[in-house]
Amino acid sequence: MKVLKRIFDLYLHGSMHVAMSVLALVLMTNHMFNLPFNFHMAGFAYCGTMFSYNFMKYESWYRFKRPISTNLKIITALSAVAFVAAGVFFMMLKRQTQITGIIFFGLTALYTVPVFPKRPNLRNLSGIKVYIVALCWAGVTTLMPIVEVGNEIVTDLILKFCQRFLLVLILILIFEIIDLSEDDPMLRTIPQIIGVKMTKLLNLILLLPFYFLEFFKSTIDNMQLIVNVVLVVATALFTIYATPNRSKYYTLFWVESIPIFWFGLVVLASYL
């Protein structure tokens, strides 16, 4: 059991699970816009996410020369492999897709790498973290697959981009509730500013535009509306039961599984 737990923790803390969530959203875009599966796009999304998240989480451990555990050494090695793989997949993408990817990679770099003398990185700018992460997720999982196949940016895609942005924002706010007792007060996260109860209320309110954006599409898919109801209810329950005392597994596994759950529902619905 200890070995299995260690492997599971490595899977979570090595950002392999969150990378699966990003991949699930890329596949959602393929499904919704009838795009063919693109191995290079999928590989770049997965490996790029894994490397980016691990870099954001652990680069300070090396920069400040903190003790490096065996697990972190393994994560570092896996991240190096993911970085090389992401680079190979990136070179296989079209030029327009590469430019789009560079824009979002640039945002990720600014989020992590020191930029200003008194503020080490954009993560430390009050309240900006949630918007940068949500923007990058929405861009990589909606815009890049569309650009790769050469499709035009249409109204339906803009709606999906906004919907994806809202979903990621909602999930991040659940994370911030769980992390409230550990976050530096200087971060000025939303729960720190307005409190847990108001953050939960904000999340529940944000679920409304997330759902009703579906009605503005050029073609309304009734099955998708049903799937989205299930997703909204599940996300609302995760929001309601989120507390700063919850285990990290609550967010690292269960909350980050919501995009995977959504994609699973869509695949299941397509067979009904």
From TrEMBL:
What UniProt keywords are attached to this protein's entry?
Membrane, Transmembrane, Transmembrane helix
Species name for this entry?
Flavobacterium beibuense F44-8
Q: Which residues cross the membrane?
A: 7-29, 35-53, 74-93, 99-116, 128-146, 158-178, 190-213, 225-242, 249-271
Would you tell me the protein name for this molecule? Prenyltransferase
Which taxonomic lineage is given here?
Answer: Bacteria, Pseudomonadati, Bacteroidota, Flavobacteriia, Flavobacteriales
